[in-house]
Each structure stands twice: as structure tokens, then as C-alpha cells.
Amino acid sequence: MPVRKNYIKVPIAILLGMAAAALFFSGCAQTVVQKNGRLQVIGNQLCNERGEAVQLKGMILMDVAWFGDYANPACFAWLRDDWGCTVIRAALYTQDSFGQPRALTQKKDMLKAVDAAVAAGLYVIIDWHNLADGNPMKYKSEALTFFREMAELYKDTPNVLYEICSEPNGDDVTWSGVVKPYAQEVITAIREIDPKNVILVGTPTWSQRVDIAADDPLSFDNIMYTCHFYAGSHFSALRDKVEYALGKDAAVFISEWGTTDHTGNGILYPEETFEWIDFMDEHKISWTNWCITSRKESSAVIKHTALSEGSWADGDLTESGLLVRSLIRGQDSAIVLFADGFETENFTSGGWYNENTGLDRDDAFHGYTAALLNPGGSLAKEFSTAGFMNVRVQLAYKTQNLAGDDTVKVEWYDGDNWQPVKNLGSSQSWTKHTIPLPEQASDNYSFQFRISAGFEGGDENAALDDIALIMDRIE
Questions:
Q1: How many beta carbons lie within 10 A of that of residue 456, not counting itself?
Q2: Which of 163, 167, 343, 460 is catalytic?
Q3: Domain 31-317 belongs to what topology?
């Protein structure tokens, strides 16, 4: 017996409106996965489902168990929309600090991260993060169990890539004797369930010997070899190894890199970072940066003030975070390389040298806290501008009880003396200024700037907020 359908008469105006809305939404931006579909490897290049070369750029979640608060769809959507990220690498450490296996007990945290990335429409790398346990064979049976389960769950999910060993290391951890046999077993286990999703394979010496892997490649489809670098420790010699591997038709994915040296701490190396970025862009090599964490290390991209759901202000980002965000966005100009809104409620996190300076928690330009210059007070900051030009300082300020020739002084250090740049006068309400610095402040390893009180005694003070250094890359 046929089913009778109930038809509702809809006015033509509503139908036209519905059609217009459908046309509007059909023109909305697609996610990177909707646009490119399931990825594949053709020759030495990562490609989309149509065979077109793609370059993914994104961030690493330091550890899905320790920093799982950031593994949520809102945070990943923020990274997608504000930063321009197209991929998240979700790291799951295979061993705890006591040398005990931990990955299988923490796999729920990996599932949370992967599902959040999928919900945000991003590609996501399931990273079996061996490090202290340099030999991937140590937890091979756990890896087989883990990746079989991941493959069962995500075999039909085009967002997913598998990274089966992050950083094989140790004198006895060779490619042909250890890493390749391990990879053959784990890849076979994955391919019995998931025949298509791309698999990333670490290489010896903390994933730096892609050249050796290229000379003795794995015989599977959709395989890429990983290379890791830190801008302050790895230079042209490692790029030569990558270029050699590409020349042997091996596909390379830079699944981890940092703006610092290999310790993840110390100063940033912007010039060396740009050399690597230019190299990766030239060869259309995909990459993920170390890392999303609020730990106090130079390679971390966020401060502890950063909300787990995203919506981060410039002051919530570290110097590395500001630089990497600009690189993902593809910015060469108006790059914010330092920002501090004093929401951390200390001067140490901003690297300030401060004298007679406090915090104002009652009146801020943005947020909850501002810096307060008392008579004779100053805030000074060292910052390498090497590789950059057109340096300018941005700040918001207001004053109280300034009179006559009292000012707030902006200066820079030329290597011998503090040189005046601008004197800011009395301002009873918050005002924002962008102050260009002299040409000599550009491309300067020894650059310093200072904001100081040009007043002494009495009840005078000046509040400062949202201080930033902005500059353009030297081409």
C-alpha cells in the first residue's frame, strides 16, 4: 500500500528566501578536510584526493593527557579560524617519567583530541610519541594494539594520519635493523584495517635521518618519513638531508619543529626559522610546530592566562606563539613579535627589567591588570630584531597628576646609550599609540627598548597596558 505524503503549501516568497539561504551557505568557506578530502602520497608530495599537492601547517598538542584541556572543538576552531591551522598533531607519550608504559592507559585522551579535531574540520595526526624510550621496539606490542584500535575507529575518517614512532633515537636504533622492521609490522597491522590513510614514520637520530630511510624505503603506499628540527640547533646540513630524500622520491613531513634550540628553551631564532620556512614552502612540505602548552619553556606558544577554549589575546601568546601564528597566517608584515597585557600579574613572564614599577588591578586598558610606573620607575626589554625592519612600539597609557614637563619616555638602546624616541604627555584617559623606532633598531641582535617615568616625587604615576613590538620581515 503506497504511503500518502502530506504536502504543505509554502508561499513563493519563503521558497525564494530558502533558496537564497541555501545558495549563501553553499558559498561558505569549506573546512580544509571538506576541500581536500582523504589525503594521499604521490611521489614525494602529500596530495589531496584529486591528486593536487597540499601543504598542511599547524600545531602540536604537547601531550593529550597533560594538556588535554586544550583538546576541545572550540580551541581547535580558534586555531583554525584565527591562526589558519589546517592540522593538529596530538602527542601521546608512550612512557611516563618513571619509565613505565602509559599510552594504552591514556588512549581515552587521544580519542578526545582526535574527535575534537574532526569536529573542527582539521586534519589530525595520531602521534605515538616515543622519546626517552628511544627504541620503538620497546613498546611494539602496545603499539600494535593501539594502532589496530585507532584504525578500527578512524578507517573511514579522512581527517586522520597515523604517526607510528615520533623520535627513534640511540646508537643501536638503526633504520634497517630497528625502525624499518618495527614500521613494517605496525603498518601491516594498520593496513589490514585501514588501507588508505597516510602513515608517518619516524627516522633515526630523533627523526633527522630521512636520507637513510630514502635509501631503503618501505614498500607501502601513502607513507611519509618524518624530519624534526629546531631552528637554533639544525641548519643547512639537515635541509640537505631532506632535499636528498625528496630527490629519491621519498615524501617528507616535518611533524615537529621549534623556534628555539633542541632543548625547547633559551632564545628564539627568527632568522634561522625563516630559512626553514622558506625551504618548506619551496618544497611544499607540511609541518606542525612544537607546541601548545603553557609550561614555562621558550617553545611553548601560550601563557597560563590562555583560556582552554581559545579566544586568545596577543598578550596570552609567548614570543614563539606570536611568531608561529604569523607564519601559519603567512604574514610578512605587521608581525607582532612581543606582547604583554600584564594579565600574568608579574613582569618575569614578559622578560622585563623593572624598577619602581607595580601592578594596577583596578584600572586596565584591556583585561584586569596594567603596569604602573611610579616616580623614577621604568620597564626595559631586550629583544633581537635580527631579520626584521620597521620596528615600532605599540602601547596604551594613562597618567595621573602629571604636570608641566612631566612625561612618559619611550627610548631605545643603541649599544652605548639610551636614545629618546618620544615623550608622551599627560593623558587623563587611556590612549593608544604606535611609535616608530629609528632605522638602526632594525636587524639588531642587541636591541633594547625602555618605557620610563619622566617625573619624580609626589603622587604622579602612569599606567601602561597592551605593550607590543611590531615589525616587518626583511625580504
A1: 10
A2: 167
A3: TIM Barrel (3.20.20)
